[in-house]
Amino acid sequence: MDRPGAQVHLLAALGQAEQIVLAQLDVDGKTNEISRFMPLLDGLKLTGAIVTADALHTQREHAR
After folding, report:
1. Using DSSP, how many helices (H) and how many strands (E) does the chain show?
2. Which of 45, 26, 44, 46 is closest to 35 using CA atoms?
3. 23: closest CA among 39, 47, 6?
4. Nearest CA to 52 among 42, 36, 37?
5. Beta bridge partners of 21
6. Are 37 and 11 in contact (CB under 8 A)?
7. Contact 22, 44 (CB under 8 A)
8. 10-52, pLDDT tens digit by residue?
């Protein structure tokens, strides 16, 4: 468990139409957002959806 007062880094998928968080994962100090991107989206129905992300995620695997 993290120490009290420690900051938590989260990666979230937001539904713009619903204005809600659809999925959220922690990004601990042993990894980064790039490795957590695909697990974040795995449980979401993305057929026909437009997915936007910041420049960090301009990765071929993420585009597929």
Report:
1. 2, 2
2. 26
3. 39
4. 37
5. 14
6. yes
7. yes
8. 999 999 988 999 999 999 888 889 999 999 999 899 999 889 9
SS3 14: strand
As beta bridge partners, residue 10 has 26
> DSSP states of 11-52 as a string?
EEEEETTTTEEEEEEE--TTS-HHHHHHHHHHTS--TT----
β-strands 20-26, 10-15 pairing: antiparallel
pLDDT value, residue 26? 93
> Shortest CA distance to 26 belongs to which of 48, 45, 10?
10
Residue for token pair 């597929």: 64
Q: Residue 19's pLDDT is what? A: 94
At 2 the pLDDT is 58
**3-state secondary structure (DSSP) of residue 44:** coil
| Lookup: tokens for 39 | 């697990």
